[in-house]
Prior knowledge:
By secondary structure, the chain is an alpha/beta fold. The protein is 34% helix and 22% strand. The chain has a domain at 300-392: NAD(P)-binding Rossmann-like Domain (Rossmann fold), CATH 3.40.50.
Amino acid sequence: MQCRVCDSNNLELAINLGSQPWCNHFLNPEEIGKEPFYPLRVVYCHNCHTAQLDYTVKKEIMFGDHTYLSGITRSLSEHFRQIAIQVDDRFWKNTPDKSVLDIGSNDGTQLKHFQELGYEVLGVESSKTTAKIANDAGVPTLNEFFNLDIAQSLKRKFHIINAAGVFFHLEELHSVAEGIRESLRKDGVFVVQFLYMKRIVENLAFDQIYHEHLLYYNLETIEVLLNRHGLSMFDAYLAPIHGGSMIAFVGHQGQREPSQHLQELRQAEINNKSNEFNTYLEFARRIEQMKLENLAYLNAAKQQGKKIFGFGAPVKGNTLLNYFGIGTQYLDYLVEKNELRRGLYSPGMHIPLAIEKELVELPDIYYVLAWNFKKEILKNNQHLIDQGIEFYFPVNPKDI
């Protein structure tokens, strides 16, 4: 294959997580055992240093329809609210007729917060179920895959373009980047929010590697892509959401000077060797050690007769469950708030999902797959902790 960012052929295997199902497709009972499996391998480009998957599950399979909803989690909605306020205060506070385009807008949660600030909003969302939810909630949303053709069909330019948790998903990467350049005003700001690979490595959060995440950016590597398309990052900061996400501010090249803080973040990557191949090889070694430690913990708990439920059924949890081989021999259920997943089973491991408010029994241990919302989970479940229920976090993100 060629590098998704720079077209180089100088790629080398860094992390091999085996063959795994598409982890965002929770199964109906009749689908159990019939789900396809695909290679899940991270390769490293020795030319531009981008970590990326070497196999692409077609976007129509992964994003044509799914059950993930942004609005389910209070802390994510609050994060989106703060982003909207921050961007408005910094760039467009008293601007009339201000507008925002959200790429991969999901159920419209981010755009609702911009609406409250007086923006004209438009979402582009590939999943028909979530696009309908957004439209029904009064958030104008196109049910399309955003790319250059869609951008040109809009025939307008926006003050803000937002892409939260989507810019590393893109099969049509360069067409989307060109579409952003096409749709962004000369003085406009592209706000790109992405899982930060430096922090994924530090957190040992390998479960954030899955088929939807085709690319794993650090600042150095995403800037290679942006610069190729006439865009330039001018500021960024690390936010705690999802265990460590970079919030980056991008404009047309030559429009804004890079901030001192951005320069410091770039230097930190150099100091920590974040973009070196050996860093990824060491990451792979630590993943293997983590697997042994988690299985030892679960085996000991089961030998003591303890009942264990999974807490949350995030997409990333299925990477961990499948790679560690954790199925119903350890976990009786995955407990979820999202009622779209009632009666479904996890791909690969086939663990039944249960809706949290409908539980008729409680476990001795919650094995927390939704670890990125640790503070919210512990706060909301203090009454269970007081009853002696243990909350075990296989991934413990660093505080930011």
